């Protein structure tokens, strides 16, 4: 099954919202509160980020994705999107195939799930297939083992669009909106840059290198916003610093756009690289840049495992741009790529520990490592959003403002100014 590179995965963009005249009597539906991960995945499905998925996977699709990296209908898909619940919840709500379930989030009606299948699946087998390991030190394996014992397959529908909160709203581009924006800009070739970090100059040159490699008209920065751990960069700093690169002129206004993706990283290495490519394909991108150790963690995957996987997927429908390492070379006197530079024995890598130490010290670093405008935004975000730190703390996890809120059915028209 081969799609045009600019078409959504599966040939059409999914949208799953309940029309006003079809809202069920919510008081008659069994209601189940859901956690943050499930709420974000409902958004991914409903807005079409996860096209062609219309809901949470049933058993045949879970098995096919785990074992073959394809949905049962043959389309490439690499990460199982599942809805788990406990035996107690199953019995208390009398959940059966054919029933409709009301999903509650932030204490409010959020979505409905049409239960098509109730099934169990070996979590150990799922972890081994998706992550290549059953080691609980792997964060994706740990997430899988934390699933409850039963799964529901079925279509979901959001009861209303969500309200995306400041400062994220200007960067919220669901696929339908982003495709319209790409068309408005006249972009024909768009390369995606996946990120969950504040950008140093190595990241900047990864984007610039991918732009030239793809012969692109535009770069889409797609910042992953999801579950946070202490020590991660705060979400606000990630998004606002990437946008600042454009504002400060390191990218021309007409070739650079920052957006957000609500997703909890699985750190699944090559499989997650494929998932990222499919999501950005749905956003309208024609190319996706993949660097060293994309979506990896520890030593579970080889440094360029995410490069190798694409050779096995000729029907992906988006072109991978496979980038090697960028670093500071004192002999070259600037940023260099291992594909071009002959002084690799002198290479000075962009150490995450070094960058974090610079930010924690609050001393402006050399601009060859960190753009001063980016540094200023990081410091501003630390004070405004991070309770004096650009890194996630227990207080940030407890007291931060939500990225989005469950809204009423009447949502004010979106403007770029708010």
Spell out the key features of this protein.
alpha/beta; Rossmann fold; 16 strands; Sulfate adenylyltransferase; 5-stranded parallel sheet; about 425 residues; disordered N terminus; single chain; 7-stranded mixed sheet
Question: What's this entry about, in short?
Answer:
The protein has helices at 36-46, 59-68, 87-92, 123-131, 139-145, 175-185, 201-213, 235-247, 270-283, 305-308, 352-361, 372-384, 394-399; strands at 31-33, 55-56, 83-85, 100-105, 108-114, 117-119, 150-158, 163-164, 190-195, 218-225, 256-262, 287-290, 319-322, 326-329, 334-337, 404-405. By secondary structure, the protein is of the alpha/beta class.
Please give a structural write-up.
This protein is of the alpha/beta class and 418 residues long. The protein has 13 helices and 16 strands. The strands form four sheets. Strands 1, 2, 3, 4, 5, 6 and 7 form a seven-stranded mixed beta sheet that branches. A five-stranded parallel beta sheet has the order 11-10-9-12-13, sandwiched between helices. Strands 8-16 form a two-stranded antiparallel sheet. Helix 4 packs antiparallel against helix 5 and helix 8 runs antiparallel to helix 12.
How do the strands and helices of this protein lay out in sequence?
Layout: E1 31-33, H1 36-46, E2 55-56, H2 59-68, E3 83-85, H3 87-92, E4 100-105, E5 108-114, E6 117-119, H4 123-131, H5 139-145, E7 150-158, E8 163-164, H6 175-185, E9 190-195, H7 201-213, E10 218-225, H8 235-247, E11 256-262, H9 270-283, E12 287-290, H10 305-308, E13 319-322, E14 326-329, E15 334-337, H11 352-361, H12 372-384, H13 394-399, E16 404-405
Parallel strand pairs: 1-4, 9-10, 9-12, 10-11, 12-13
Antiparallel strand pairs: 2-7, 3-7, 4-5, 5-7, 6-7, 8-16, 14-15
Helix pairs in contact: 4-5, 8-12
